[in-house]
Specification:
This protein is 69% helix and 0% strand. By secondary structure, the protein is mostly helical. The protein is globular. Mean pLDDT is 86; it is low at 1-6 and 475-484.
Amino acid sequence: MENKKQLNYRLIFILLSVAFISPSIVYLLKGRKIIDLVSSFTFFFTEPTWKCTPAKVIGTIFFIGIFIALAFVYYKILKNHKKEFETGKKVAIFITTVSILFFIMLPLTSTDVFYYIGTGWSEAHYGVNPYYTSVNDVMAESEEAENDEMLLKMKGVWSGQTIVYGPVWPFICKILSGLSMGNLFVALFIYKLFNLCLHLINTYLIYKITNKRNLFALLYGINPLILFDGLANAHNELLLIFLILLGLYFFVKKKNVALTVISFALGAAVKYVAILLIPFIILYHYRKEKLFKKILYSFLWAILFIVVIALCYCVYMRNFDFLNGILTQQGKFVNSIFTPIAIKDFDLALAVSKGFMLAFIVIYLITILKLLFTRKQYIFSTFIRKYNGLLVLFLFGTITNFQSWYTLWLLPTMIWDSSKNIKWLSMITIFSELCNIVYFIAYEHYMFGAIYPIILLVAMVISNVLCEKKLHSNEIKIENQEKK
């Protein structure tokens, strides 16, 4: 009877996944075009509007209900994974099945994938440098571009923005968009297929790094946020996660520091956050060496790291205007703790955010210096846990343009944390997506509102208290067992 109950968790998870993708299937079966797709969970039965309508309320309740149920079953599967899955093969089949279901789901709460498609196509087909020429510029200069659906789909949302990512990403976009031959549906399929492959590879890397532990493969592989934002909305976080995990695999399993540094440098050439991890890896590797050797080796590996990044940037860079698109991201106030201030006084919010960034840099450098000068032989997980704490601080205390899918950055190194922290960090990924209920109600009007960060901060506090309470409860149980 118990085995039947455990089997049902997997079945329920799949059924919930099907319910999630059903609007997308309905949309496609009706023969509607991708260019008409609206970034809203209620797209399948209502037109987008800035006002709160009954249809939006229904759509929001539909989303919240399914997502909460999916999260609940997710934790049930993790808790009972030994009974649910006898072999790694069954885990692989389950993760692949669920991943394919979310691969089918159309992008609902983000237009980023169409930004990737458009900038990639502008380079592949029109031969422009996406760091200096926006899609609006391409459409203004070319009569063909004015009616190109690959560019029209991002018009009015991202079309005036040059590329905001490191050079590895636009290079990949150029290839992926070029393969579509100018067909928007095919382009979306290719980008989603690319992410599906990355997701399955990432799951396998975690499986290998953790000595074939099914729990950690499931922790990453069926995380509701990564399924929704990594596979359905097709964000480029999956490439960043792949390069970080690849570097960790080279370090943990192959003991190859050079390949680790190169992988992290390529990751930083997608999104700069990968830079934060590399000092922890290097200092751990040379933890038994004397101070002079620690500094020397750190300097030499830093040179390799910089060289790899510089080579990536040389592909696109003409002058320092190249950095304009990247730097503008920190000047936007969306969904962050600074947003409530920005509503009242933009300049004050900018000043406060710079102060927080400076404080983070000081805390980060102090942490690195302590690890540099310490004589204690810390284990690897200790180094990574310190990094995880700083990453959480960076996510919620410095980024001014915060989005729910950024919390996916926590997943590659979460596996080395304590059981309590793993649960808390995974809950953050769940809550960050649930806070998007603001999006469903108000469409994109919330973008400069304060509701999202307030809900998220409250949710983080509640989740931390729940984890502490659970830990305390477990400690009492262990104490009682020992007394008996």
